[in-house]
Design a protein that fits this description.
By secondary structure, this protein is of the alpha+beta class. Helix content is 38%, strand content 24%. The protein has helices at residues 3-24, 36-47, 50-70, 89-93, 133-138, 144-162, 173-196, 199-209; strands at residues 30-32, 82-86, 100-104, 109-117, 121-123, 126-128, 214-220, 225-231, 259-264, 271-276, 281-287, 296-305, 311-316. Strands 1-2-3-4-7-8-13 form a seven-stranded mixed β-sheet. Strands 5, 6, 9, 10, 11 and 12 form a six-stranded antiparallel β-sheet that branches. Helix 1 (3-24) crosses helix 2 (36-47) and helix 6 (144-162) runs antiparallel to helix 7 (173-196). The longest helix is centred in the middle third of the chain and has 24 residues, at 173-196. The two termini are 29 Å apart.
């Protein structure tokens, strides 16, 4: 993610957090936990131009209205104080994709929002010479064959790094690097699935979407809408309060049990497509994330198909 995109994302978090606080404070006691992530978001907000700030406010306001319809426990009165906080980036690296948390410690309850500004990416995972993606993604170590297949690719990249070569100076990097690496990745996925069965697709989706249920809130400026997607994989979202029920019901989503197909996309030299049962589909576009060659490449992972049970709503800006 570029520095500009990162700053805009933080500013969007700041707008959402403060609009949430202002809305909730009308009905109940609320505090914002001002940690280092909050102050980073505040700086990004202060540096944003007025036009961008106005868009973030409209976008966040539209999304928050729907979140309150899903989650009556946010506004339901209680003796506890509701806490809002922005999570640190390290939580994302540890498997928690939620950016903003809404917490009621008095009833041991919390939900989280994953905020996106004009993009739909799920993860930005890497492949590297000593990085065991199988162990990290689904708890099964990569085979000796995988390490054998990728060794010449990353040895070549290490040599180019020593020469301080730039990525744009490499000849046919797609043919010589991207495609062989993606082929090794695809073969390893198939190999692990053949041996371990439904553990692989289920754990893989859990890795890609994080260890907690969440609402994804995506501000799409060009259409002036905020899209809400409810990832209720474990049934922890959409809980009724003691006095009030949710106005919109969010179903629990089925996890996959089968890999239907995984292959390099036809006519592509940088993207793998993964098709699972229960309606899950993902794309993995590999790319270099730096100017100079390094023995590591990054995936831009996108959801290209979702189960019908993932509740999605488009909220128009006012």
């Amino acid at each position: 993610m570029s520095s500009l995109s990162n700053d805009q994302g933080r500013a969007y978090e700041f707008a959402t957090l403060n609009l949430l606080a202002n809305t909730i404070s009308i009905s109940r006691s609320v505090v914002i936990e001002k940690n280092s992530s909050y102050y980073a978001a505040e700086r990004a907000w202060d540096n944003a131009n007025p036009t961008l700030k106005n868009m973030f406010i409209k976008s966040a306001s539209a999304g928050i209205t729907s979140i309150l319809e899903f989650e009556p426990l946010i506004l339901e009165d209680g003796i506890d104080t509701l806490i809002l906080k922005i999570q640190s980036d390290i939580e994302g690296r540890n498997g928690d994709v939620r950016d903003v948390l809404i917490i009621r410690r008095g009833i041991h309850w919390e939900i989280g929002l994953s905020l996106k500004h004009n993009h739909f990416a799920v993860k930005h995972s890497r492949l590297a010479k000593s990085l065991d993606f199988g162990d990290k993604w689904f708890g099964i170590k990569c085979s000796k064959q995988y390490w054998y297949d990728i060794e010449p690719i990353f040895s070549y990249l290490e040599a180019q790094k020593s020469n301080k070569t730039k990525w744009n100076q490499l000849q046919s990097k797609e043919i010589n690097i991207y495609i062989p690496l993606l082929e090794a990745f695809v073969k390893e996925l198939k190999r692990s699935y053949e041996i371990h069965g439904n553990i692989v697709p289920q754990r893989m989706v859990e890795y890609l979407l994080g260890q907690y249920d969440f609402y994804k809130m995506i501000g799409i400026d060009s259409y002036r809408i905020t899209q809400i997607q409810a990832f209720n994989l474990r049934g922890t979202l959409n809980k009724d309060g003691k006095k009030t029920k949710a106005n919109i019901l969010v179903p629990v989503v089925d996890l996959p049990t089968r890999i239907i197909d995984v292959a390099i996309r036809p006519h592509s030299n940088n993207t793998v497509e993964l098709y699972l049962d229960a309606g899950w589909q993902f794309s993995f576009r590999i790319h270099n994330a730096s100017t100079y060659v390094e023995p590591s490449l990054k995936f831009d992972i996108q959801i290209i198909g979702m189960p019908a049970t993932i509740f999605t709503i488009d909220c128009k800006w006012q």
